[in-house]
Amino acid sequence: MKQLVQLKVNGNTHDVMVSPNETLADALRRGLGLTGTKISCNQGDCGACTVLIDGKSRLSCITLAMSSQGKEIRTIEGLETNGELDPIQRAILEKQGVQCGFCTPGIIMSARGLLDENPHPTREEIKRGLSGNLCRCTGYTKIIEAVEAVRDAEYEKPRLVQVQ
Amino acid sequence: MRNERDVQEQVLADTAELQETRAEVQPVVQLRELEPVVPDTVVEEQVEDEFAIVGKSIPRVEGFDKVTGRAMYTDDIDLHGLVYAQVLNSTIAHGYIRKIDTSKAEKLPGVLAVMTGQDCPTLYSVNELTPTESALAIDKVRYFGEGVAAVVALDERTAAHACRLIEVEYEELPPLVNAWEAAKSNVMIHEGADSNINHHAEQAFGDVDDVIARADVVVEETFYTSGTNCAFLEPQSVIADYDPGAEKLTVYNCNQLPHMLQRTVAKVMDMPVEDIRVIVPHIGGAFGGKSEATPSVLSASYLSRKLGRPVKLTYGRDEVFFQNKSRHPCHLKMRLGFKKDGTLEALDLSTLLDGGGHSGWGFVVLWFIGALTQLPYKVPNIRYNGRRVYTNKPTPGAQRSFGGVQARTAVESCFDMAAEKLGMNPYQLRMINAVETGYKAPSVVECRHSEFKKALTSVAKRSGFVEKHGKLPHGRGIGMAAGHYSSGGAFLLYNSSRAHSTANIRVDTEAGVTVFCGVTDLGQGSTTVMTQVAAEVLGVPVRKVNFICQDTLLSPMDNGTMDSRATYGAGHAVKNAALDAKRKLLEVAGVQLGVRAEQLECRDETIYSIYDSKKTMSFWDAVWKYQDIVGTVFGTGDYTPPQPKGDYPGKIIGPSPAFGFTAQVAEVDVDLRTGQVKVLKYYEATDCGKAINPASVEGQVEGGISMGLGQALIEEIVVDRKGRIMNANFHDYKIPTTMDMPDMDTEIVDSYDHTSAYGGKEVGEAPTGPVCAAILNAVYDAIGIRFKELPLTPEKVFRAMRGEDPRGPELEPNVIGFANANYKEFLEI
User: Fold this and answer.
1) Neighbours of B145 (CB within 10 A)
2) Coil, strand or helix: which one is B343?
3) Using alpha carbons only, what angle is made at residue B507 by residues B506 and B512, rounded to the nearest 5 degrees?
4) What is the CA radius of gyration of chain A?
5) What is the b/e burial string over A17-56, where b = at least 16 CB atoms within 10 angstroms of the residue's CB?
6) Contact: A138, B699; criterion CB under 8 Å
7) Is B715 exposed, middle or buried (0-12, 13-18, 19+ CB in 10 A)?
8) Of B545, B555, B554, B552, which Cα lies nearest the Cα of B517?
9) pLDDT of residue B47 exceeding 80
10) Any chain A CB within 8 A of the CB of B75?
11) From the list B57, B704, B730, which residue is nearest A41 (CB)?
């Protein structure tokens, strides 16, 4: 039988009906229509479903929706404000750290979590911080460069991105 | 000791001398005449800085949607009345289905319908020669994980629960998991056949045996390249939406070849092609693995028509592995004959491909391995003998650099072995034999443009290869390998002679510039590149160009995104369409300005006379006038590559209007205690012609290398003796992470292919091919042991360093794909 949980996502509180064994990823995607969070392996191996829970990057496909009640959940949809991108979103976009884009939301959330915890990570710390996120397209180089650019304050002030 | 530069110059001088000698050698076979090369578009002798948009690393046009989570992939789409299907997968690899009892599943509340193979019995395949596949297994299962029943319910959980209530009785047959045994077995995987050999490819150019008998140096070796999975992040997903009112079917599916998929669905559903509309939402990676119809598309289509409502079916990660359609496991036997001076005289290759349960693109891969030996080295005598055999394993198909990984691993390893015998540096041997612009291979393959030598020299210089090779301390090594790939085949694989690519363009003040084209963006960036091409021709900013693709209702017929053909093939079509529209527009602008149309150009949204700076008008004013006088500006363009003449088996596979080239050097460290191979630094040089979007090219190169590195060191689909996949998930099937990737040093060499729309050639596949060979060569340089089998796991290196068989004595040597010692206990089952 489904039960009611209150999920606080990107600052808004939602009432969602979930099964006791339903994952947070499913609740976000199917329950709230927040499909920016992706499901790829569905068992915690690939990082595509990464969201921030109370500021820490967590795998929503192996987190129960029920256990997320009362916690601050932040998804890819909650990073931009009024069309202004977060610096890490801008950096990934402009440094071409995005190809097919399926791993991108998870990578961005992991990178955001990493930078919030450690605003000046070394290249090695960036690699370690993103080692739980699989990407099959890019070979990671441009993603790492994007995180380094944010670390180096290249994208400090958010601005509206204009594609040429 | 001579410094690096002296060595390089000496090599170049030697090479030039050898090529002069070589020109006198008469070809052994009679070369066929190619039709004269006539580029579809007039070659524009523009230099790089004359382009406004081509050659600029603009961000992806769809990038904003992708970094904000707005981009919709198939599984993200919701439709009114959407219901969900799930598949029950076979638990055995080979056997007859004696009984399926679906009654309990049908009674489960929430279940709407259950289907089995008999409900949708039309057989299909991406190739028209061997249609053996079906939506669900009919009477017999041929691989572990094959679908035997499907359930559609109000939600996924109910559908999955119902699948578990279906009872299937199998009569098991002995699973044939070894390609060599399957080839000889009396048990037939496909009834009615007289052998399990799916296809046999044989080609001979010149008298290879005779030339090798007279060669000064001969190398002969066998290799095994493993079966890997494309491992795209987005599992295949489909929504079939049958409209009972219109009697039409719309299919949303992440497929690379929407026009091919449309035909397959039409055939299986017995509907006219024009009543099927395929919409391809954003694709979460494909790499070739999404170039065939998955059975789920056909199950969902059947169920949607049955219910008259949209049905979604998304695979789990395990099902991605079951449906596989990725790299072919391949045994290769290679013989190369050289003259004393290093000239390659003859190449003799035999292969056995482990083909799994069906054919799919397999017969093309089989021929392609042979065709890929025609380049990038000059070799006048070539023989190829390949067989593809059915086994009870998930079917391989296309994966990035298809045929390339197999061919390059064997050729490039043998080149290093030959260099050692000849007493030459491997770089020198490659330079001696490297192809140049205008080279005609003994088959109809012709290399119309090549900067391959530039790539070899670039990578050798940057890595210090000549100085380091053979001189690094024990445990450290450096290895070189090189390769090439076609920019789309010269022949259509469809049974038709229509244009390979067509583009339509509409220019008006209501929507700006809108391009309609059938090419599919898998993430490689074709939408951005095509947009750049159209914007360049018309002199408008990229943001004024709408690019409509991935929808068979709106996009004209296209061969699809495969065989690295998008930039070259579709690029031509888009450029031609834009030129057509531009020509019409300039006629009206010419009248307005009192200038001959051919003296007008477009740039920065302005039309101007190239001779009189006062004669200008706004691009959009001209469009407005044109609409007033004539109507909307429409343009159309298409592209078909030149068709080489010739008559020999397998002719249609291999020739291409353009080839991209790559040269690579890997520097590795082998842990002498554990056998762990770590790639420290990776150097690459690409000849992709003119890079339309250099940052995207770099992304292709880096991504391609990471896929090759995975195959070289960690990736292999492990199948046990019963045909069960032991690692159908990302926990046990590992792909490279940030921690596995070496520092990259890549370079796009200066190159412009004048047969191409803006000088660009392929870059998507060539870089993946030689990676395994570069690493194998580097490991040989590090520890003096030549490995001939992939992947190069620490276990294999460790055993070999102790003088043991790399595969380990305890493993049955003939069980293919069972090299990973972690799984040895499953042998007893």
Assistant:
1) 25
2) coil
3) 115
4) 16
5) ebbeebbbbbbbbbbbebbbbbbbbbbbbbbbbbbbbeee
6) yes
7) buried
8) B555
9) no
10) yes
11) B730
Q: Which residues of B touch A48 (CB under 8 A)?
A: 233
Pairwise CA distance, residues B594 & B692, whole Å: 34
**How far apart (Å, rounded) are the C-alpha atoms in residues B393 and A108?**
37
Residue of B314, B674, B285 lying closest to B475 (CA atoms): B674
Interface residue A130 vs chain B (CB under 8 A): yes
Cα–Cα distance for residue pair A157/A164, rounded to 1 Å:
19
A76 interaction partners in chain B (CB closer than 8 Å): 68-69
**Contact (Cβ atoms closer than 8 angstroms) between residue B147 and residue B89:** yes
- Residue A41 has its nearest CB partner, among B524, B542, B729, at B729
CB B698, CB B118: distance < 8 Å: no
Q: Is A141–B282 a contact, with Cβ atoms under 8 angstroms apart?
A: no
On the CB side of B732, CA atoms within 13 Å amount to 15
| Residues B702, A142: C-beta atoms closer than 8 Å | yes
Cα torsion A90, A96, A102, A108: sign? negative
Written as six digits, the tokens of B32 are 């066929």
Q: Which of B78, B729, B738 sits opposite A45 (nearest CB)?
A: B729
**CB nearest B76 (choices: A35, A41, A135):** A35
Per-residue tokens: A121: 């990570």
Q: Tokens standing for B205?
A: 């150019």
Residue A133 DSSP label: -
| Contact call for B282 and A100, based on CB within 8 A | yes
Count chain A–chain B contacts defined by CB atoms under 8 A.
Answer: 190
Where does B656-770 have alpha helices with state H? 694-713
pTM score above 0.90: yes
State the smallest CA–CA distance between residue A155 and chain B in angstroms: 15
Q: Where are the alpha helices (DSSP H) in B718-791?
A: 771-783
Q: How many CB atoms lie within 10 A of CB B620?
A: 17
Angle at B92 (CA atoms; ends B87, B96), nearest 5 degrees: 90
* Distance linking the first and last C-alpha atoms of chain A: 51
Query: What percent of chain B clears pLDDT 70, i.e. is strictly above it?
Result: 91
Reading the block at residue A141, the tokens are 């180089």
Half-sphere exposure of B350 (CA within 13 A, CB side): 6
Phi, psi angles (nearest 5°) of residue B71: -60, 130
Query: SS3 of B809, please?
Result: coil
Sheet of strand B95-101, all strands in order from the earlier edge strand to the far edge: B140-141, B95-101, B167-172
pLDDT tens, residue by residue, A13-47? 999 999 999 999 999 999 999 999 999 999 999 99
Q: How far is B659 from chain A (nearest CA, A)?
A: 22
Residue B3 has pLDDT above 80, yes or no: no
Q: How far is CA B89 from CA B166, B190, B228, B289, B829, in A?
A: 11, 19, 21, 20, 20
Name residue B707's amino acid: M
C-alpha B712/C-alpha B775 separation (Å) is 7
Residue owning tokens 């001076």: B341
Cis peptide before B791 (omega within 30 of 0): yes
Cα torsion B643, B647, B649, B655 to 10°: value is -30
Confidence band for B810, pLDDT divided at 50, 70 and 90: low
Closest C-alpha among B452, B67, B339 to residue A111: B67
Asked whether B250 and B241 are in contact (CB, 8 A), the reply is: yes
**Closest CA relative to residue B769, chosen from B407, B311, B336:** B407
The verdict on B233 touching A (C-beta cutoff 8 Å) is yes
Q: Which two tokens stand for residue B362?
A: 């397999």
* Phi, psi values for residue B507, rounded to 5°: -125, 120
State the ipTM, two decimals.
0.96
pLDDT at residue B710 tops 50: yes
